[in-house]
Amino acid sequence: MKIKVREISSSGLLFEESVNPRDIGLLEDFINDEVPLTVTGRFERVGDFILAKVDVVYGVENHCARCLERVSGQEKKSFDLDFEAKAGVEYIDVGERVREEVIIGYVPRVLCKEDCKGICPGCGADLNTESCECEKKH
Q1: Domain residue spans in the chain?
Q2: pTM listed for this prediction
């Protein structure tokens, strides 16, 4: 995801691109690489810098921290970027910075639902879908 520096003026440049997460090096287990990653943003030149407000939408896959059910969905992250516009630089690579922001924003502990009851530590029953017989035995 490269942007030509000369196309960015002080009035700004709107950018939108969809890519496969693997194309920018997002190989992490929590990324669903079957769902395109969409980047939209507004880039503008301020002196020797390029400033951007960026939104990224991507697919995620994880497991519930309580019951281990598979959880899939979409995440949206918003962040600001800045690049130095040195003389002779023709492009800025947005992909690497987006990759970093997605990894930094990863939340490892997710729940399938707020009131997930989890798994019984005694018998392993999924307490969301079945009853536990452990307490009745004692």
Answers
A1: 2-137
A2: 0.76
